[in-house]
Amino acid sequence: LEFIAPSNSFSKPCQVPKLSSWVFGRMSENEKGDPTFETFGQGKSLESKNQLILLIRLGKEVKDGLKVIALDSQLSEFGGGQFFYYNASTFDIGGMMGKSKFLLKPGEHKIIKPSDQDIEVKEGQSFVQTVHLYRKEEFKNPFFNSTWHVNPKVRSMVFFYQDNVQKRLKMHTLQDFMP
Predict the structure, then answer these.
(1) DSSP string spanning 37-63?
(2) Quick one: pLDDT at residue 157?
(3) Distance between CA 105 and CA 98 in Å, rounded?
(4) CB 170 within 8 Å of CB 158
(5) Residues 6+ apart with CB under 8 A from 25
(6) What is the C-alpha to C-alpha distance for residues 45 and 68, in angstroms, rounded to an integer?
């Protein structure tokens, strides 16, 4: 199956037969002209028939390798008002969503759903206070503090990474709007 994997956004959905693993790469030819498959990344498939596959570059280019993460895309597992976090940096990332705390070691990910007690409702809209910190020796290095909208029709993805040009920790977010 050939598809386009856009950077920093979602691709169009693909339907494929159930697989035991996900393998991503490209077809090429070896020195003899025989077809060969160059693997960039692979990961375990889930039992769910609805999977969201994240491809995370391990270097500057796709050929440097991909980390493949399969998420159960059913709304009961990763639905509206939930936040997927992934730490692609070399720092430990700590955070608070309302009063709920979380920790992400480098390479870890988790889905967080703010508790009802953490959500503040203003004029019919739901919000949650978020704070993100990174650890050098201790978690005394806040780098993001904001109020985020919590929408039952939107699931969010938050990626932490290090910008190699500016040598800074950065955060990128994506939102998936559901019917």
Answers:
(1) EEEEEEEEPPS-SSEEEEEEESSSSGG
(2) 95
(3) 20
(4) no
(5) 37, 38, 39, 40, 41
(6) 10
- Spatial distance between the Cα atoms of 44 and 21, rounded to a whole number of angstroms: 4
Q: Token match 């993460």: residue?
A: 69
- Tokens 């440097």 locate to 64
Strand 83-87 relative to strand 154-163: parallel, antiparallel, unpaired? parallel
Segment holding 85, helix H or strand E: strand 83-87
pTM: 0.86
99: its two tokens = 């009063």
Q: What mean pLDDT is predicted for residues 156-174?
A: 89
Residues 61, 106: Cα–Cα separation, whole Å: 20
Sign of CA dihedral 36, 38, 44, 45: negative
User: What is the mean predicted confidence (pLDDT) over 154-169?
Assistant: 89
How far apart are the C-alpha atoms of 179 and 172, rounded to whole Å? Answer: 23
Structure tokens at 117: 């007690």
DSSP letter assigned to residue 128: E
Asked if 53 contacts 42 with a C-beta cutoff of 8 angstroms, the reply is: no
DSSP state of 167: T
Q: Which residue has the tokens 């050939």?
A: 2
Q: Is 18 helix (H, G, I), strand (E, B) or coil?
A: coil
Amino acid identity of 101?
K
Backbone φ and ψ of 58, nearest 5°: -95, 0
